[in-house]
Amino acid sequence: GNSVTQMEGPVTLSEEAFLTINCTYTATGYPSLFWYVQYPGEGLQLLLKATKADDKGSNKGFEATYRKETTSFHLEKGSVQVSDSAVYFCASRPGGYQKVTFGTGTKLQVIP
Amino acid sequence: EAQVTQNPRYLITVTGKKLTVTCSQNMNHEYMSWYRQDPGLGLRQIYYSMNVEVTDKGDVPEGYKVSRKEKRNFPLILESPSPNQTSLYFCASSTGGNQPQHFGDGTRLSIL
Q1: What burial letters (b/e) apply to A2-36, b meaning 16+ CB within 10 Å?
Q2: Where are the alpha helices (DSSP H) in chain B?
Q3: Most buried among A103, A108, B17, B112, by the most CB within 10 A?
């Protein structure tokens, strides 16, 4: 079946540090890939997505590239801010109306 | 405004007392889904629905029921709640294919 594996958290970084959160997936075919962010006390919201190999999703300074050869979709940001403190979820979705698979989430804490 | 609305946001109740968590979306989405979020376990899918009168089990369906009589509504029913169903619950909706999900703000259930 499909699965998504994320790096364990929590991740603690100083402001302006470089961020990488690893995500790998297993799937039959070529799923669409997503990163969602959950701020404290809120629901999940889409951060970025990529729908085919070599696509790069980007938003709010975050980027992730769909790597078919390594089945990965790592999240990166060059300079994190305190306001980026949140839980980040990687997810994959096959085509049609098949179910979405989420990773376990990675908590990021950015300290001033 | 496009949104997914869950009610109630918070509920404390007792073992065995039937409860329903409502979910409504105003985006005419075919796909709707329920998740529970527990520390260390990430998001786990309970049930999902691909359209009216079409539902299927997710990863953790035991102890839950759903129905999809109208496109906009997807209630989650706990016929006989137990303490292990204490959790944070999210409803989500989307169109099919490679589109992201829209999440509600969550319902925090405590079963005593």
Answers
A1: bebebbeeebebeeeeebebbbbbebeeebbbbbb
A2: none
A3: A103
A49/B96 Cβ within 8 A: no
Q: What is the largest CA-CA distance in chain A?
A: 43
Q: What is the pLDDT along chain A (112 residues), one digit of tens a residue?
A: 788 999 888 999 999 999 999 999 998 888 999 999 999 888 999 999 999 999 999 999 999 999 999 999 999 999 999 999 999 999 999 877 677 889 999 999 999 9
Distance of CA B3 to the CA centre of its chain: 15
* Residue numbers in B near A105 (CB within 8 A): 42-43
Q: How far apart are CA B29 and CA B43, in angstroms?
A: 21
Q: Tell me if residue B53 falls in helix, strand or coil.
A: coil
Which residue(s) pair with B55 in the sheet?
B49
A85 to A29, A47, B50: CA distances (angstroms): 33, 13, 34
User: A21 and A103 in contact (C-beta within 8 Å)?
Assistant: no
Q: How far apart are CA A44 and CA A42, in angstroms?
A: 7
User: Which residues on chain B place their C-beta less than 8 Å from a C-beta of chain A?
Assistant: 4, 30-31, 33, 35, 40-43, 45, 48, 50-51, 56, 58, 90, 92, 96-98, 100-101, 103-106
* C-alpha torsion angle, residues B9, B12, B18, B22 (rounded to 10): 0
Q: Are B77 and B65 in contact (CB under 8 A)?
A: yes
